[in-house]
Amino acid sequence: MKDVSKMKASNRQAGKKHGGTAVIFIVLLILGLFMLMPIYLTLVMSVKPVEELFVFPPKFYTLRPTLDNFSDMFRDLNSSRVPFSRYVFNSISVTFTVTVLQCIFASMAAFVLAKCRFPGSKMLNKVIVVALLYQSSVIYIMQYIVMAKLHLIDTPAALILPSIASPMAVFLMRQSISQIPDSMIEAAKVDGAGLFRICWQIVMPNQKPALMTLIIFAFQGAWNIQSGALVFQEQYKTLPTVVSQAAASGMAKAGVAMAAAVFMLLPPVVIFVLAQRQVIETMAYSGIKD
Question: CA–CA separation, 204 vs 177, rounded Å?
Fold first, then answer.
């Protein structure tokens, strides 16, 4: 009788476990669909003809899909003094430069803060945590003043230099590098390795998940940089700036704006899909300390 009662109790617990798993799955599925809805609407709006864009109530599908919005986007953006390829080149060059430099400087700063002991290191770590609370829009005025003093207004450097320093990047890398055993660092010092060599030949090869996560965040931030506040010459503007200008042209350009949004969406999505496993692994270990 005792064995039968134990089996019934275990079956009830197993049923509760499976029921809880099913509820969690349903909730996550609903949340996932809710998060995918803006992407789906953007794709649908980009292939809707003009007469369907203003139908009320709006529909979640199109009766006559068309690619005219994309052809109109290339035609309108090429009709300016600067060709569309120039805007794409500006965005790619700024994104690549910011991503590479942000990874390099954030990795070196994080290594020093995580594995080097010096006066004021704890204070610097606290300052970085506090800096995470500030949005970039808060420092726009100070940023413009600094760029003006350095005579960098209307140059690509005005877009690149402010984006290299990222508190989030330093915080993320510091949390990951702190998992490296101190004994490994001490052994390298005994063998005569300097800090620079320890950083790039010992620590960084073990930080692939964190670096891939940082690349995703840096790429997404740099790809969406708008040059309207710091760059006024047309040949230096980035693609997001031109897309926002097209979107502000009126309701008649709504389809063109959606087509441009799809064009802007593709590179970050591709980068994220290629490295999403590394992101999950990094987030699992970013808050763990020895």
Answer: 8
Rounded CA separation 106/102 (Å): 6
The whole-angstrom separation of Cα 34 and Cα 31 is 5
Q: Per-residue pLDDT tens for 92-115?
A: 898 899 999 999 998 888 888 888
pTM exceeding the 0.85 threshold for the entire prediction = no
pLDDT tens profile 156-180: 888 888 888 888 888 888 888 888 8
Backbone angles phi, psi at 226, to 5 degrees: -105, 135
| Nearest-angstrom CA–CA distance, 283 and 241 | 32
- 206 close to 180: Cβ distance less than 8 angstroms: yes
Asked whether the beta carbons of 202 and 137 are under 8 A apart, the reply is no
Cα separation, 258 vs 72, in Å, equals 11
**What contacts 147, CB < 8 A, 6 or more positions away?**
153, 158, 161, 162, 230
| Alpha carbons 45 and 248: distance in angstroms, whole number | 16
